[in-house]
Amino acid sequence: MKMILVMNVLERNINLFHQRLLAVMKHRTNIIYWEALNEIEGVTPYIFRKLLNYFENPYFILYEANERELLEVLNVMKERKR
Predict the structure, then answer these.
(1) Chain center to CA of 17
(2) What's the predicted TM-score (pTM) here?
(3) 3-class DSSP assignment, residue 74
(4) Domain count, the chain
(5) Which three-class secondary structure string do you get for 5-35?
(6) What is the per-residue pLDDT across 13-71, written as a single tens digit (0 to 9) for each?
């Protein structure tokens, strides 16, 4: 009976540790994407904020957004039509 109790406690602790580890890894990964986006030449704080307001996550800006979406967000397409 004691062995079952010990195993349950260990399993619970391992699950909690795993959840915390995943949260830390996700946070650190997000920091890397933020830093990468911030290092791109020509991305001013205004542009950075505008992109994040639309896409909400630097990962999507760097890896999911296509050129047309980026240009639409920055209203560059409207400027080119003039």
Answers:
(1) 22
(2) 0.57
(3) coil
(4) 1
(5) HHHHHHHHHHHHHHHHHHHHHHHHHHHHHHH
(6) 888 888 888 887 777 778 888 888 888 888 888 888 888 888 888 888 888 999 888 88
